[in-house]
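Quick check before the chapter quiz. The format below is the same one you will see on the exam, so make sure you can read both the input and the output lines.
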Amino acid sequence: MRLHLGHHFYGAGNLGDDFMLAGFLAALRQLAPGTRFTCAVPFERAPLAARFPEIEWLPYSAEARRAAIADCDAWVGLGGSPFQSAQSRWFIDHLIEDAAFCAAAGKPMDYLGVGVQTAAELQAPGLAALVGQARGIWTRDAAAAERLAAAAPATPVRAAADLAHLWFRANPPPPAAPGRATLVANFDYGTWPGRDACLAAVAALPPGERCWLAQEARPLPGAEIALHAALPAAERARWQLVTPEIAGAPLATVQARWPSGEMLVTARFHAALAGAWSGSRILVLATNEKLRAVACDLAVPALAPDADRATAERALADAVVPAKPLAAAAAAWSACAEFVRSAVAPGR
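Here is the expected output.
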């Protein structure tokens, strides 16, 4: 079987994407050994080839994508929130172009482990036709499944779980360090209106190590590194900036640098999953629907990004260590198995 991985964000610098991709590849090694993969990305390909050598990494050109799709048995979009358009239409426009290539070549499209940022994004022009073209969609949470099913009633949509659970089940993150508070702040090119209130609430916790974790390795506006640099000098000095990524290094090596904390405050989806597997008390900064969904799935509190100090202190007090998400890992595995069965069905 030959699969073309249609999402093109790998190599951009977000470790969450790598955790998810690693989980999928591990599942396919068992479910469909010998599968060949192609993926076209607009980023440096050498580090990706070093980390994921089983994938043929192609240049991001219309010619390379069209040829890879023509040669594949199925196009599959793995993880993320592919239908997002809050910042721009870059992802949707890419998918629409790939969908045209698939239609011309008669190739099926599937989405596996995907989420939805907001309900409004599903009203974007061209989105209904794009979702309607899919042979099948397996989401990473029930809320996303409900919204996508409503957007494309004729498309089979099933609620599953994020593929990163498969990686974390086999390769747990470092255990939560007692006394350490880890913060993962991301506001997607925006600001953090409740920053000072939340940081004051964290400062009121028992003394201990404070880690400002950058899941995203690039200094993007509103992301971890830029937000850390923008802190007042005295506040910045209290927080150790930790960027685990080492370009091209094995994912296990990078994950060993992940600073799991007894307390985790996160505005990153995959950092929340890592915290669940490491045994952290978790508080989710709920900046969008996918973060509200992960807080619900993990049964941990969610905090609005503009919350005042008193509200933040109450939320920190309510933070709990979630049950290890073994059921989510099982659901992700089942989704991979269902996808493989559909991809190798007679006539494919």
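If your answer matched, good. The CA atoms of residues 30 and 139 lie 21 Å apart.
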